[in-house]
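Pilot study result, target chain (116 residues):
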Amino acid sequence: MVRLILILFYIISNALLLFFNWELFTTTTNVDFVFTRLYIMPFVVVQLIGLLILLIFWAVEHVKDTKQELETLKLRKSLIEVQNEKEIALLKEKLSNKIMDPPGADTPAEDLSINK
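Predicted structure:
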């Protein structure tokens, strides 16, 4: 969210600079290469480089957020698996207790021996 606000602030401030200083942005500079001569607007180039840096910042932060979200989902999945294993173990324990003590028997099986 912060990165989107930062990019929007950058775009709005540049739009205001462009609107109030149109002559500054429309001035061109001759750049002479060996094979050709280019007419470049230096302030536009600087603003585009700044926007490119902000977009790279946004992409890196987006990748970090995605990795963190993926890690959170993996941890949540492992937590659910552990909880399911715990429930299965609890149900197995209850089932084994019911098999060892059949319903209707008030005393454990050891106390029912005839040879006392």
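One observation from the pilot: The mean pLDDT is 81. A full batch analysis is planned for the follow-on phase.
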